[in-house]
Amino acid sequence: MRRHICFLLFFVLAPLTGCGLLVDQGRQVMAEVGGKPIRRDDLMARIRMLPFEERAKTNDPDQAVRLDARRSLLENIIIEELLILEAESRGNQVSDEEVFAVLEAREQEEQEAELEEGMGGTSAHEHKGEDGHSKQEINEVRRQLMVQKMIGEELNETTRKRYYEAHPDEFSISPPQFVYELLVVDARNDRFLKDTAQKAEQEGVALSAAVASVPDAPPINFCGEIPPTPFMRLTPAIREKVKGLSIDQVSEPFQINPADPNLHAVARLARRIDAIPYEQVKQAINQKLYENFLRELRDKHKVVYYQDRLDYRLEG
User: Fold this and answer.
1) In 40-63, which positions are buried (b, 16+ CB within 10 angstroms) versus exposed (e)?
2) Given this model, what pLDDT does residue 119 score?
3) Is the pLDDT of residue 18 over 60?
4) Model confidence at 94: pLDDT above 50
5) Upper half-sphere CA count for residue 113 (Cβ side, 13 Å)
6) Which string of DSSP letters, residue by residue, matches 206-238?
7) How far is CA 75 from CA 33, 54, 62, 307, in A?
8) What local confidence, expressed as pLDDT, does residue 55 receive?
9) Is the pLDDT of residue 126 over 50?
10) Pair 54, 69: CB distance under 8 Å
């Protein structure tokens, strides 16, 4: 009789023991952010949200592939926790109106998506509290808005331009480039060429504007800017005439093409480019500021990794 009881206890307790082991494994700490643990269950929840192809990488037979995929996900969770922790520590306030505006916008999007998919019969308030939203939803949106406000304080047009102006060497162009404006006409119209050049220089306007103000102008072969070019890459004929020009100054007329004596031109120095324009680098600056901000948060809120715990067996 005692033997049968032992067997019975084994079959009853064995599944419970296994279940307890899974619970313990799920609570294993993979990293800590400001003392807050990120557990294997948190990582698993993120893995389950991935598309099939990405999810498969987290359990790839190749150890390097699966560890890289898991590290990437863990790093995303760590960054989110750092941002939330910092936003909460700053005490940024988010009103209920802002939170519910986001939730209502999401509901609207969900309803429109359901209608497009022919699923209009489902309820947008299903499985939610009396006010239509669970506390978890409300808290998540509130944290997200707090983080958005904080990032808006750290990364904006003012901070980007301040960085750009404070780091001129980082965006300098060497050798500098020059933008010239050319006016090319037939050599028989040299008088027009000289008068137009003088008008442009005296009035500080572009050659094209000076030409447009002249009635009965002769045929123009070319009038416009040439692309930004280092001085030494200009053609010898242009380089010879424009060296030493200051901004808005116009050269003497010259033969633009040695092989064609019938074409004469004047050149105006429109601008000198010593640095990459701000508009071309502001996205790169934004990314750099964000990375710097995250580094500061890692220093402020201690991050501890347990890399050796990432190579667990993932079932399913």
Assistant:
1) bebbeebbeeeeeeebebbbeeee
2) 58
3) no
4) yes
5) 7
6) -HHHHHHTSTTPPP-SEEEEPPPEEGGGS-HHH
7) 11, 16, 20, 11
8) 93
9) no
10) yes
